[in-house]
TrEMBL record:
This is AAA+ ATPase domain-containing protein. HAMAP family: FtsH (MF_01458). One of its GO terms (molecular function) is metalloendopeptidase activity. Residues 216-356 form the AAA+ ATPase domain. Its cofactor is Zn(2+). Gene3D superfamilies: 1.10.8.60, 3.30.720.210, P-loop containing nucleotide triphosphate hydrolases (3.40.50.300), Peptidase M41 (1.20.58.760). PROSITE patterns: AAA. It is found in: Membrane. The lineage of its organism: Eukaryota, Sar, Alveolata, Colpodellida, Vitrellaceae. NCBIfam families: FtsH_fam.
């Protein structure tokens, strides 16, 4: 009986909806008919074409026309005679006396207004949007009924339908995740792995911590530069934990409809609580976790803020979320809302930094697996040369090296393939159609030799790794690579002496052009060098307190220049002092670079000559050249070249 009643109810509902559709359609057609009573289009009067403009003027002079109507664009006219007949003339010449002629023979003239659209066209334009809207409402209601039945069967009568489905979260769900990744396969992030391993242990064996009175962290947020392995670590957590795993991204919560994002957050946590203990991973959480506007001139985003508020309530609200651990990843932790980062929501902030030298070496071991490497490939050297590379960058490097080797038909990946891949990533591909004159090649060689020699003669500066004058698609005509000290990069601490030497090295290219060709023949090749010099020198004076005249003050920083922080109230005298001291710092560095090159002109000429011949010098070749020069310097063993190889006219 119950089944029969259900079928009767379905039949009645189906009949009711069909009847509603018929009535709605009938009502719409009736409204269209009543609102547009005049459906007839007035028949157009017969028109006769005039043969020429002369015929038209003759008929005007014969006083046959009473009215002349000109088209809006002035290229067509319609003349009406005394009997109401119409004559059409296409292509009116530019006759300045036409209007005078019409006035003379008392012919009325005017510009013809555009013909109105027929009534049936206006009716369609008026009612078509309403017809579409009515159809959408009708089908939405039909789908809502069907979705409601389906939702009732699957989730105990939860709301369904088209609108309900907007609020459902399409997060990837694995009851027993098999990502194929565990912590042993993640190299170079030991500290981050330790933090996340404790979360896994908490989920697997909570008694180890609860007996000490510890509570499971509700959230862990991983922050760090792009490509450092945050998503890979999340996959490792899923592979190690063995508990249900939900994965999604912040952008999947965002919709144009207000309230949809908050509904998706509720749906995600409701599903997670049903299978707890479990893990929810939200990648790029800054898409919804951005700091909320506090009024004023900042624009507000109600949808994003409602989504964030719902996330805050689910993570640590009145009801709580016992057994659900949220793991999030972002590379913009500085813009996240403070309420999201407080303990009780994201209890732990795990830093996933760029790998140091041992970590890069371990990462390379992972990414060379499955690749046939030649015996001459030194992974230790590659790790030392890739300072500042992320894990993703190292993976890309080895992949590019494999592509280079395959392109040449090799069986093994060799050192020159890795070198070519590294150059391509940092500078771009080699220009295949490069046709440089000997003069331009020599100029570039002197420029790059200037950078290298200044660095070589400054104590404590980074060693030269490679010098190249091969033009690249990235816009570089040449480049000098250095091996920065790992300790300096890791600590981020730079001395005054090192920064002053860095300025001199950056100005070494311009100084070499000045020494060899004269100040009137320097080129724009140093434009990027000058940008770097300006930035470093200004930071030394305004941010780092490395100038006696300005003192230990931070009168300007990057946040101020970007408008994200107020400028300090400084006097005009202070601003003038800053400008004067920045110029002085740069001038001193340029004088130092120029003096080094003048004192070692023979070595400058020899380095440039070898670069022109081979287009590239390795760090070992350059070091050997410098060592030989220093040993033979008293005897001037190196042959002297022309003092000015090329004169610019």
């Amino acid at each position: 009986m119950k089944g029969d009643d259900s079928e009767d109810d379905d039949e009645a509902a189906r009949f009711s909806w069909n009847a509603f559709g018929r009535r709605a359609t009938f009502a719409g057609l009736t409204a269209m008919l009543l609102s547009a009573p005049d459906w007839n289009v007035s028949p157009a009067a017969a028109q006769e074409a005039l043969r020429s403009y002369s015929q038209f003027l003759d008929m005007v002079e014969q006083k046959k026309f009473t009215t002349v109507l000109f088209s809006e664009e002035g290229t067509r006219l319609t003349a009406i005679d005394i009997d109401g007949n119409q004559y059409v003339l296409e292509g009116i010449p530019n006759d300045q006396n036409l209007l005078k002629t019409l006035r003379k023979y008392k012919v009325d003239f005017s510009v013809q207004s555009p013909e109105p659209s027929p009534n049936w066209v206006r009716a369609i334009v008026t009612f078509f949007p309403w017809l579409i809207l009515g159809s959408l409402l009708f089908f939405t209601a039909q789908m809502g009924r069907g979705g409601g039945q389906q939702g009732g069967q699957q989730s105990g009568g939860g709301g369904g339908g088209l609108l309900g489905r907007f609020g459902q979260m399409n997060a990837k769900f694995d009851m027993k995740p098999d990502t194929g990744v565990n912590f042993s396969q993640v190299a170079g992030q030991d500290e981050a792995k330790q933090e996340l391993a404790e979360i896994v242990t908490f989920l697997k064996d909570p008694s180890q911590f609860t007996k000490m009175g510890a509570k499971i962290p509700k959230g862990v947020i991983m922050e760090g530069p792009p490509g450092t392995g945050k998503t890979l670590l999340a996959k490792a957590v899923a592979g190690e934990a063995g508990v249900p795993f939900f994965s999604t991204s912040g952008s999947q919560f965002v919709e144009v409809f207000v309230g949809i994002g908050a509904s998706r957050v509720r749906d995600l946590f409701a599903n997670a609580k049903r299978v707890s203990p479990c893990i929810i991973f939200i990648d790029e959480i800054d898409a919804i976790g951005r700091s909320r506007a506090s009024g004023g001139f900042m624009p507000q985003n109600d949808e994003r803020e409602q989504t964030l508020n719902q996330l805050l309530a689910e993570m640590d609200g009145f009801t709580g979320n016992q057994g659900v651990v949220v793991v999030a990843a972002t590379n913009r932790a500085d813009i996240l809302d403070n309420a999201l980062l407080r303990p009780g929501r994201f209890d732990r902030r795990v830093q996933v930094n760029l790998p140091d030298l041992p970590a890069r070496r371990a990462i390379l071991d992972v990414y060379v697996k499955g690749k046939p490497m030649a015996d001459n490939v030194d992974l230790d050297s590659i790790a030392a040369r890739t300072t500042g590379f992320s894990g993703a960058s190292l993976e890309n490097l080895m992949n590019e090296a494999a592509i280079f080797a395959a392109r040449k038909g090799k069986e093994l990946i060799e050192t020159d393939d890795v070198d070519a891949a590294l150059d391509r990533i940092m500078l771009g591909s080699e220009k295949t159609n490069r046709a440089l004159s000997e003069r331009v090649k020599t100029l570039t060689a002197y420029h790059e030799a200037g950078h290298a020699l200044v660095g070589a003669f400054l104590p404590g500066y980074d060693a030269v790794q490679k010098i190249s004058i091969i033009p690249r698609t990235g816009g570089s005509g040449g480049a000098t690579f250095y091996l920065p000290a790992e300790e300096r990069l890791t600590s981020g601490m730079y001395s005054v002496d090192y920064l002053q030497n860095q300025l001199a090295v950056a100005l070494g290219g311009r100084a070499a052009e000045d020494v060899v060709y004269g100040p009137e023949h320097v080129t724009t090749g140093a434009s990027s060098d000058l940008q770097q010099v300006t930035r470093i020198a200004r930071s030394m004076v305004t941010q780092y307190g490395m100038n006696d005249k300005v003192g230990q003050l931070n009168v300007e920083d990057a946040m101020m220049r970007q408008g994200m922080a107020p400028f300090l109230e400084t006097s005009e005298a202070t601003k003038e002092t800053v400008d004067r001291e920045v110029r002085q710092v740069v001038s001193d560095a340029y004088a130092k670079a120029k003096q080094i090159l003048q004192d070692n002109r023979l070595l400058l000429d020899e380095t440039a000559r070898r670069l022109v011949e081979s287009e590239m010098l390795s760090g070992e070749q350059f070091s050997s050249l410098v060592a030989g020069y220093k040993a033979a310097e008293p005897n001037h063993a190196i042959k002297k070249t022309k003092s000015n190889p090329f004169a610019f006219s």
